[in-house]
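HOLO CASE FILE
Compound: zinc ion
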Amino acid sequence: RQACTQAETLTSGMNLTRTLGNLPPNVCQPSYLAEQAQKMAQDNSQLVVEVLAEEQLKELGANALLAVAQGSDQPARMIVLNYQGGNADEQPYVLVGKGVTFDSGGISIKPGASMDEMKYDMCGAATVMGVFDSLLKLKLPINVIGVLTCAENMPSGGATRPGDIITTMSGQTVEILNTDAEGRLVLCDALTYVKRFEPKSVINIATLTGACLVALGSQTSGLMGNNQELVDSLLSAGQSAGDAAWQLPLFDDYQEQLDSPFADMANIGGPKAGTITAGCFLSRFTKDYPWAHLDIA
Ligand code: BES
Ligand code: MG
Ligand code: ZN
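Model generated. Tokens follow.
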């Protein structure tokens, strides 16, 4: 009976993730994900949810997240879930999910074939929601912060252009050379934002690069990080759960692929090692805590 209860608890979270992923992109928009998170908090006293709207995101300087959303009629949202199962003074584990509710590519528009699949570009955020569903049911004695960093990537007269330069929340500037490399932009501000929680560790989950599908197929997630202990724990968790990840190197030598003559970095690193250069980009925002990045494309 205990085994059944535990299986039910885990599959409930997985099912929520899948259901959110499968919703059409005209329904599952940033505001919808915010509502779902708020509903979850209404039903659970251990969960507090805060939704940051565009005005607050502007005050925070979340210009990378806002830049991705600026071509869309749907405003960006940063959704912060705070589960306190441990003592108030215990450092939290932080999970950050990419929540691009539709990724058309923006002005660097994607080809039409299979573009519908880009409704799944919020599956990192959906994964965090699923984890919280299970977490609340298991009542684990730990503190966990979840951040869903949500935007819709669309082309319009207000959209970002290749060549635009923005200042991220971290103060570092980015030259947007390809508007389709938007995942790292929505993530970088969230990764800066979570510093305030003094995390024990930060794991981000994102459908980040097509290159990851080329390298590892649909079976295995790409994994990178700045802390081998954290990476190893994810590798072994993936093995025991039957949902494996494989570590890719974040060697410093790859970093120069992000060099820009006009800004601190470009948002793309050229055709080679696209999954790793995306990881390199994120690594520039995660120096203050143990961090791992799961590319679940
Ligand atoms: N959401 C895509 C990554 C993706 C592609 C996930 C296919 C699942 C299936 C991401 O936003 C993207 O477009 N990445 C670009 C990056 C490139 C412009 C550096 C890509 O992979 O082509
Ligand atoms: Mg894209
Ligand atoms: Zn994307």
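CASE NOTES: The chain is about 35% helix and 20% strand. The pocket of zinc ion (ligand 3) is lined by residues 100, 103, 121, 182-183 (CB under 6 Å).
CLOSED: yes
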